[in-house]
Amino acid sequence: xxxxxxxxASDVHLVGGKNASLGEMVSELxxxxxxxxxxxxxxxxxxxxxxDQADAWPRLHAALDGLDIKDVDDLARRAQQARDIVYxxxxxxxxxxxxxxxxxxxxxxxxxxxxxxxxxxxTAEDLPTASFAGQHETFLNISGExxxxxxxxxxxxxxxxxxxxxYRVDNGFDHFxxxxxxxxxxxxxxxxxxxxxxxxxxxxxxxxxxxFVTGAYGLGENVVQGTxxxxxxxxxxxxxxxxxxxxxxxxLGKKESRMVYSQGGERETTHxxxxxxxxxxxxxxxxxxxxxxxxxxxNIEDHYSAQAKRAMPMDVEWAKDGIDGCLYIVQARPETVxxxxxxxTFDEYKLQNAGKxxxxxxxxxxxxxxxxxxLISDVMQLNLFQAGEVLIADTTMPDWGxxxxxxxxxxxxxxxxxxxxxxVARELxxxxxxGCGTATDLIKTGDEITVSCAEGDLGHIYAGSIPFNKISTxxxxxxxxxxxxxxxxxxxxxxxxxxxxxxxxxxxxxxEFIVAEHIKIHPMALLHPEKISDKKTLDAIKLxxxxxxxxxxxxxxxxSEGVGTIAAAFYPRPVxxxxxxxxxxxxASLLGGRCFEMHEENxxxxxxxxxxxxxxxxxxxxxxxxxxxxxxxxxxxLSNIKLMIPFCRRIQEAENVLQxxxxxxxxxxxxxxEIYVMCEIPNNxxxxxxxxxLFDGFSIGSNDLTQLVLGVDRDSEIVAFDFDERDAGVRExxxxxxxxxxxxxxxxxxxxxxPSDYPEVAQYLxxxxxxxxxxxxxxxLKTSRQVLDVERRLGRPPRENR
Length: 802
Hints:
- The chain has 802 residues and is an alpha/beta fold.
- The protein has four domains: 2-187, ATP-grasp fold, A domain (Dna Ligase, domain 1, 2-Layer Sandwich), CATH 3.30.1490.20; 191-340, D-amino Acid Aminotransferase, Chain A, domain 1 (2-Layer Sandwich); 345-473, Glucose Oxidase, domain 1, CATH 3.50.30; 478-793, TIM Barrel, CATH 3.20.20.
- The protein is built from 30 helices and 30 strands.
- The strands form six sheets. Strands 23-24-25-26-27-28-29-30 form an eight-stranded parallel barrel, surrounded by five helices.
- Helix 4 packs antiparallel against helix 6 (145-157) and helix 26 crosses helix 27.
- The longest helix is centred in the middle third of the chain and has 22 residues, at 287-308.
- The chain is elongated.
- The two termini are 53 Å apart.
- Residues 126-132 have low confidence and may be disordered.
């Protein structure tokens, strides 16, 4: 017996990875506020002693030697034989006495009501390259000496679960060189509260500057196995370390069920029950708890990284005790999938002609795969699964690893991005879409389908086999053009992945996407619900805002978290955020919007952009936008964002808007705040000297500038043929804008569509010496090469290698 306080990370050979890590945290991190339930480890030596005394080794060799894990039926038969041999090896009396003595000491510490968790810890577990996560057994809420001793024997036997045998073979471990230790620790009563998993990076992209916290009510098994859709939170490490303790982003999970203990004689049994509706509709952790867990995870990562003398992203399990209200860390191990990605290689998957998806869920990974569907509703059907099929299931379990290894993709009804299906899919490098809800109802065995995780946070399943392209780029070989190349991005879901592109920041973040896709409600409807008469609209607004202090708080937090996610992804590179530029017809399509928007025959030239910001019909809405941007810069500490005013027609209008922003706490020049203006109206070019006195920079919007130079409504199909950003008049206006901005010492960039679509426009801009070109992410690498060629011809050397 070894108490956790006597163990360290160097004791893996003695007590396995899990117990060694618990000991390391108890002995080294307690002073930093890391709270670990006390307990002791039954060493791997005890495991060997049990099998030695029972003379079990020859029988185990007979059961396992020559095993071919591809023969699933033979694997199941032999694995059962091995487990029977180990479980049938009784604990010698001297060992049993030591276990009971240690258990009684734990009871003395916590009281007679103590129940314990009995957890397997293999000597080849929680290594930096092989986690063995979920391969062995854990028994919860155990009370009484007899049940404890039986649970220890069952843990020993679980070393030969089918999944554990397969995992060892796949990772090159010899069955007889891996031993099992057992941890016995105070049971955290998360059945009365909540539990979950923390990663100190983004699990989908490998982005390392965030802490990713997931949680749900009840015991943690539901989160790990993916039987619930958990709450998700992100915290940005760089600004957190600077004292900006704010949540970067949050997503409310469905948390359909919670695992609790069954009542009656068998206290250790568990069952799932429906989560009460009022609990489902709120987060399982408050902000202070999320931040406390994030701080613990950061401290754990820092500690293990210092030991390893290299960055060591971590996978941490937490539980909240419903009796004492405390948060506990119950496991910490190196993350072994996302952290192994090569950041020097950028892979892009693109569908060629996707139609309407059959169903959607949370995307795992960024790949695309096609194949015939195989619906698995019972474990007895696993032997029907064929290599290359797409696994469709309600959820997956650890015993399904053999089948998942040969699957083209995985689709589940339930689960979040840290569930079993997601973890295994990442490790196998296959796409998975989890938490679809009704996949098993809509997809049948034999259906040809395409699973796409290449479209952001949302994964889609399409009917048929849809062709797709994979583009791999070695970023380490790319040079950096003299001209700053930036990206246009409005979707926070793709921000972390896009940040790996070799760019100089974000030239345009449109907040309209965040408002339309993540907020969905007209800001004035949040401020003045009394003007809405439709009950369905009011009910929909109430549902969306239910977890927030007020409807306006909902808007400010959702917008700030969306913009903040993009700013964090590219930090400390600049991110230019354009304030809202919805047209009246677009605003009207938001929830409650028709109560606040007038009808315009040509919204493109109407009540949009800067003209709205100080107008009585929208000034209060603009105030919410400003509060959100102030929260990003000041509370979140993301001072890399610059703000930009769109469609600003006149100097007086610009002065009014800047004054309004200052009144809302966004003072140009204060705390380094820069405010740009879109250069997209001919008057912006004609009066560029005057506009330069008010703004720090210009971003040419080639779409609207073309529209207004040529007099073409770009929304009108009948004259679309006349809309051409390469027109000589448009090019001349761009030239005047660039020269005017440079003449006044102002930054001049372009964020319109033209350089993304037309190489000749990009060439023209480089030849003029424009400061920056902002492109769609899918054209950045191609345009980067073109710009380098132009600059080479002009005799401009690249800045340096990527």
